[in-house]
């Protein structure tokens, strides 16, 4: 008898788990599964990233599902399409030996009719993003009157993305008698608020330390100057020829630009962010999961909760505003007990952001040195040798040429021959990194006086730490009031009694308008355009600008609010097949392509 049987799961489920290689329940599964099976209390469950929370809530639901009924009994809400799809697939895997279970996943940006057809067939379990779920409820295609379980996965992120109204609408049409399950890896204040709002006397369980990162992830940082941030990223990719990583950026704009640069520079990279259509996002994810892409450059929202096997690195191109998000980012690696490395590329100015993260994850960042040319060339050389050792020789294809080839090479000694073959690929690397400068350390004095990024308008807001404002709540406030899905948020500076934030200047006028009657926890909010430069702290300059000014910028972008929303636009840069040779499907690493730009 398996340990999963002992938790009260039927044999069909246990068999499916065995197929998936799940031998024993993880700690959160051990606690949550019997709790959900045996009691009807609401549940708040915390466990580190990558410890199997999806199975922890899905398995007991599958166990208790009324298979005689076709009514929707469980609704699982998640912030992004990718995550909803992943959860839906996981549940299908778990119930593959159970008859009469239908799981339907609903999310924006995809054909609604197909989803409606799925619902009509009778879906006992629906996994959805909030926007599309509301849409289907309004169309009377999704009926939640028989709901027994509501699962809020990554609930804090749903609120941060401005889904509060949608969540309210969804929960309103569910029966009073139901079990609400909230699963999270972090414990920001928002999660507490959700529990208060949506749950009745929840039982709380936690496995491991709240907010803690995955156990087997090591955390490293590279201190460099701003101008060396991107070259550092390239060196990290070059020194790890088998890299399979997610690079996190803070904005869509940055995500697009880093991905475009990597592609131009010959790496197997692409971008994942909310400006892409659903189809584009699917293609990128498919290529990444199949390891045809080695580097996925993503925003926090797009990559929240993604479970990709065997990532070697998570790279924080810029650290997130909120320490909690770092936990979610680094948790993409080191999953299911495996090891992983989470890297932060930081400047002097960002060094202070490490401490709050360290206290959240309960671990120290280790300072690392950006590798020099010699180290990179050595790694690449041995990667090349490995490739030579592993290459499959297609005898039939090559045989007809061999005689001629041998004839041409007959005067070259064996040792010399090896050197020459290796050099064909390696020379490019050697010459690229010859005399490459040391990128370590940030001695730039560019900080503090830098003026605001010309694409953003900077605002003063009369709320600060004292009012309970933090970056996530500020972003939520902006999204809530702007009621706009495509607004890019730049730098945020939360001070004691007031704060500053930047948003895409194309939306400056709307923002001023939108905040005129805004409130925050019963306080009226004052938002004004300010010309004060970044990083100074102190009082605002007082120089008010007449609203409505500023250049129009059609750039769009910004923080994803809605998983189903923005389908247009998107990254249309060169396809990942452009720029240099990228080796075979699973080859990994730099494979002799061009290297351009700063080394
Ligand atoms: N009991 C188990 N034994 C082996 N592998 C497991 C077990 N439970 C889950 N896994 C695997 O562990 C990985 C992480 O699981 P899952 O995605 O549910 O994590 P999570 O806790 O939801 O993470 P996050 O907080 O990052 O969203 C998945 O690949 C899953 O298949």
From TrEMBL:
GO terms for molecular function: helicase activity. Residues 547-557, 565-599 have a biased composition (Gly residues). Belongs to the DEAD box helicase family. This is DEAD/DEAH box helicase. Residues 34-205 form the Helicase ATP-binding domain. Residues 2-30 form the DEAD-box RNA helicase Q domain. A motif (Q motif) lies at residues 2-30. Residues 531-599 are annotated as: Disordered. Residues 216-378 form the Helicase C-terminal domain. Keywords: ATP-binding, Helicase, Hydrolase, Nucleotide-binding. It comes from Aureibaculum flavum. Pfam families: DbpA, DEAD, Helicase_C.
